[in-house]
Each structure stands twice: as structure tokens, then as C-alpha cells.
Task: structure prediction
Amino acid sequence: MSSGVEDHETWGPQAFVVRYEVTNGGGEAADYFAQFEFLDADGDVLGSTGVTADKLGAGKTHKGDTAPLPAEITNGDLADIKKVRVSTVERT
Result:
């Protein structure tokens, strides 16, 4: 996973973009959900967003990018985001 502020075609100018990969290491297709928490300079959680990889085949990798929407940042502003962490990964 990598992240940072950039001008993005989908997420807009000066968006905090997260580039991620989800790999199915299991023996059969599975659905994945990953949640990202956005942190300020002090490490406080500003908000979160989630991504899915549906019916990901065994041994396959799903790559994508995402950015938080203003409504998902409830404890500050988008401009306050300094880093991101994975808070949850679920496989079903």
C-alpha cells in the first residue's frame, strides 16, 4: 500500500490517494473487505473508508486506489490527513 496527496483524475486535485492491493492466498475464490483509517500528524483518527474485492480468484490480486470523501472525515478536515493505516481486513 502507498498513499499521498496528488492531483487525481477520479478523486480530484490535492486528494489523499491510497493505492492498495488485495491478494487471495487461499485455495478458492473469496470476497474481501478492507477498511482504511486516516490519521492526522498526532496519529488521531480523522475518519475511515473501505474497499472491496468481490469473488477474487485463488492466487489472484486486485489492485485499486481510493480516497476519502469529505463526509467520511468526521474528526477534522481532508487537509489534516498525514497518513493512513489498514484497520480491518475481512475475508468471506
